[in-house]
Amino acid sequence: MSKRYTITAALPYTNGPIHIGHLAGVYVPADIYARYKRLTENDVAFICGSDEHGVPITIKAKKEGVTPQEIVDRYHAIIKQSFEDFGITFDNYSRTSAKIHHETASEFFKTLYNKNEFVEEVSEQLYDAEANQFLADRFVVGTCPKCGNEESYGDQCESCGTSHNATDLINPKSAITGNVPSLKETKHWFLPLNKHEQFLKEWILYGDKKDWKSNVYGQCKSWLDDGLRPRAVTRDLDWGISVPVPGAEGKVLYVWFDAPIGYISATKEWAVRENKDWEPYWKDENTKLVHFIGKDNIVFHCIIFPAMLKAEGSYILPDNVPANEFLNLEGNKLSTSKNWAVWLPDYLQDFPDKQDVLRYTLTANAPETKDNDFTWADFQARNNNELVAIFGNFINRVVVLTNKYYGGIVPTPSDFSKVDEETLATIKAFPNVIESSLERYRFREASQELMNLARLGNKYLADEEPWKLVKTEEARTKTIMFVALQIASALATLSEPFLPFTSTKLKGMLCHSALDAESTWRDIATKKILLPANHQIEKGDLLFSKIEDSEIQAQLNKLEASKKANEAAKKVVEPQKETINFDNFKKLDMRVGTILNAEKMAKTKKLLILKVDTGIDVRTIVSGIAESFTTEEVIGKKVTVLVNLAPRALRGVESQGMILMTETAEGKLVFVNPDDAGVGNGLTIS
Ligand SMILES: [Zn+2]
Question: How many A from CA of 20 to the centre of ligand 1?
């Protein structure tokens, strides 16, 4: 039965491009769900947009010396493009800087204000006198009162997910100047969450939300058990939506107040474009509202936004909030600032036309019930062992053999064997099997069921071996190929939510559009024949191709480079040594020299025996540089030599002096070179 669905995906924050963690956590599952709901003939509004307000954008703009608008324009375009590239089928992708959003959010605030749903309060807030501004949200860092994380932000601790007020932080520090903030009085509007606590408890804990994912239900229960407190929904900032009431000059709405309203304004924008009425999508009891988010957003979507909607009074509440846990990358937390990520534009550059491989890998290994790890080895294995070896192999055999034996025309079957009948019956069961997983938001399981249908096809062909029978049992071969083509056709339709690009290609190869009536998702469960005899298919192409070890190694090398750069950035500059006087310095006799010869010291890894022309003489110096340089590389090199260092024996060779070196962050040695200006050996360095 057809139903109306409003499906939202977390608004990506517009201070950078998006990476695989975002895709795995929110956008791929949301898209699978939206596509599946459309395929099963529901009325769907799949809504998203850029979240363009809030403090991090203003911080980034300040750092780059540009306006916040320039930052959001830049990343809105990049993010929107990534979604299109990966086949995320939003019905509308809007942005919170849009006029319709400013109007909608203002109106929403005014409605609550007029209903006396806010508490207006002058209170002391953190203030940075040097920067001359209040320290809201990410402008302040301190210790989380709940978990002790020392780098918690003013509005939320990323470590434990708790949402709090900036004044709750222990040892707060300004993120702008590093100063300890003072307290200064300012007026704000608070949403009295405590007033909604009872309703939220009834709705979530005693209501019908037991079917929410356990991580979501558990977090909500913990907050509700702790008791809710009023939360300020306005800020002293100059970037955002102005607070639309008297006495609020210089104040804007808290980004987490306006962002979820972005779902509503994006729906309105879409409805105008499509000539529809937006209200049933948000106000009709029969509409199912589903929010796809990451686990860091649970409090906003399960506590604060529902409290806002309830306070407004005319809106429906979410039916489900299937939040995912986090995806890690090669064992480490994804991090924008540490460049520990796979950025979507980079992925497409390295793996053009392989969007489905990433969608599939991220789904098969989705962080649904716990944090999960993305590894390039797993990515390669999913592609080579599943998409290529199972799905691709089956389709290729069916298409190639149909073309080879019958010129691409679906053959007429004769009597079905018991195995044929069972196989045809099994195909019919697949839509329901996949649906039952999707209805419970188990996308990993659903994707594996899809792969099981391809497995079924592979096994059927391997058992029946049409290539052995084709010369001797013409009628039987035709029947086998007919059955295999039915599996291929079911795969073309059922793969659409998971592998949309592949599905389109496969439908093209099987010429679905030339059918009198192309089978829908539901038809597969009821119809015995999806591709009728005499239907012409095309020659087709390979759906997937093997990913080589070298391609995987290249990705691992990229990550290794990020790791090294991070380590280098972390490396502490050693403090200055004790002061010396000029007489001390004068004692050091440093000269320009040239390395005339070099040989490796036997049985050592590090040592080279060098012959160095110091201008004074040609002497032997033993130097620990063999791991950074070959002998050929150093012969002829101009170097700086400390010549009056007391000689000492290294492995039985007397070293008469020292060549000055430094070391890069990556541990490579570098010569401290005299400028190459034709300086002669023996010149003094002072
Ligand atoms: Zn915390």
Answer: 25
Instruction: Write b or e for each residue in 190-223: b if 16 or more Cβ atoms lie within 10 A of its Cβ, otherwise e.
Output: bbbbeebbeebbebbeeeebeebbebbbebbeeb
What is the DSSP secondary-structure string of 169-211? -EEEEETTT-PPPEEEEEEEEEE-HHHHHHHHIIIIITTTGGG
3-state secondary structure 458-486: HHHHHHHCHHHHCCCCHHHHHHHHHHHHH
Nearest Cα neighbor of 216 from 60, 325, 65 is: 325
Cα–ligand 1 centroid distance for 138 (angstroms): 14
At 8, the amino acid letter reads: T
Q: How far apart are CA 347 and CA 17, in angstroms?
A: 12
What DSSP designation does 264 have? H
Ligand 1 midpoint to CA 221 (Å): 17
Return the pLDDT at 572.
Answer: 63
- The CA 147 to ligand 1 mean position distance, Å, reads 4
CB 641 within 8 A of CB 633: no
| Distance of CA 223 from the midpoint of ligand 1 (Å) | 13
Question: Phi first, then psi: what are they for 684, rounded to 5°?
Answer: -80, 145
Rounded distance from Cα 626 to ligand 1 centre (Å): 49
Q: Span 577-586, mean pLDDT?
A: 86
Residue 500, SS3?
Answer: helix
Question: Ligand 1 centre from 298 Cα, in Å?
Answer: 14
Q: Cβ of 590: how many Cβ atoms within 10 Å?
A: 20
Give residue 583's pLDDT: 87
Q: Please tell me the distance between residue 148's alpha carbon and the centre of ligand 1 in angstroms.
A: 6
The tokens of 638 are what?
């101009």
Q: Is the dihedral of CA 35, 36, 41, 43 positive or negative?
A: negative
What separation in Å is there between the alpha carbon of 283 and the centre of ligand 1?
Answer: 35
- Determine the longest span between alpha carbons in the chain, in angstroms: 106
Mean pLDDT of 7-13: 97
CA of 164 from ligand 1 middle (Å) equals 9
Span from the CA of 308 to the centroid of ligand 1 (angstroms): 24
Ligand 1 centroid–CA 123 distance in Å is 24
CA of 237 to the centre of ligand 1 (A): 25
Reply yes or no on whether the pLDDT at 678 is more than 80: no
Q: Give 149 Cα–ligand 1 centroid separation in angstroms.
A: 5
Q: From CA 445, how far away is CA 459, in angstroms rounded?
A: 20
Pick the closest to residue 124 from 48, 52, 232 (CA basis): 232
Nearest CA to 292 among 186, 181, 438, 433?
438
- Mean per-residue pLDDT for 537-543? 94
- For the beta carbon of residue 428, count every other beta carbon within 10 angstroms: 16
